Input
Amino acid sequence: MTFQKGVDLYRYLLLDEWSRKAVQWRIHWQQTAEESRLLLEGGLSDQNILDLPEDHRPEIINDRGRQMKAKPIQRLCEDHGMPQLFARPRTPNDNPFIESAFSTVKRAPEYPGRFLDDDQAIAYFKGYFTWYDTEHYHSGIDYVTPQQAQQGLRQKIVDQRRTQKLAQRRRRREENQKPKPANEKTNNHITMPASLVA
Output
């Protein structure tokens, strides 16, 4: 992710699987439990998760990276009454939403592929995740934006689209079934000039 061989930047992402919203993200030079803790605490605070009763708090599903299996992360999840689940080893299908989000990042036309430093990466992803949450119509959530889905507007938008589609079909059917005026000529046959018939 950088121009220097063997030097990588790591992208941390906390994704709401229901709305596909990028709740919190971070860029860092190393994978550490401290960065993971900051990511989780930031997301929990921003989304007011800790105000929910414990039985309504979400599960945390993550890969098996050592930074996510670290004791401080386990304690954080236990202290906040949130189960921590892990994907099976070498099984990305266990967490397809995050894999899809990372794939969308790499397919973005503006994605540079490599960054000079963490500041350049942070600047890029700040704009990217704003676009992703507020403008990107997501196929997995009925082509609404993650922001709209999180705000509970998904069903309303889908219903409006369905109503508009049915109204448009009805208008087309009515227009196509109107009787044609008698004086309007129709081109059901082609008249060929006499010179071509002979």
In short: The chain has a mean pLDDT of 87. The chain has eight helices and four strands. The two ends are 75 Å apart (CA to CA). Residues 10-136 form a domain with the Nucleotidyltransferase; domain 5 fold (CATH 3.30.420.10).
